[in-house]
Amino acid sequence: MELVFVALPVALLVGGAALAAFVWAARSDQFEDLDSPPERVLFDDDVVRTSGKIGPDAAADAASGIASDGRSAASGGESSRDAAGLCREMLDRR
Predict the structure, then answer these.
(1) What is the rounded CA–CA span in Å between residue 65 and residue 77?
(2) d(CA 31, CA 89)
């Protein structure tokens, strides 16, 4: 019986906190767009190529936009390739 005097107020507090969190989420439009987040998973992000360097040289190359093979990142090197070309290149490196 003494457990009920502890468990009931704790359960009411937890339930009240959950209700308050739901009301806050509903009022701040957290449930506004439920369709686009699952669709975003289906689209690839741009491939980012790193130089593999560590230290100040890597930071300088990243700031200047130079990829590991010397091409400029602004020249459209990786983003203009198709997925099959990238896969072949990765397999050739092995």
Answers:
(1) 11
(2) 42
pTM here is 0.40
Residue 72 makes CB contacts below 8 A (sequence gap 6+) with 65, 66
Nearest to 51 by CA among 65, 39, 37: 65
Nearest CA among 79, 71, 69 for reference residue 45: 79
Helical residues (DSSP H) of the chain, grouped into ranges: 2-27, 36-40, 56-64, 83-92
Report pLDDT digits (tens) over 21-70. Answer: 999 999 998 888 888 878 888 877 665 555 555 555 555 555 555 555 55
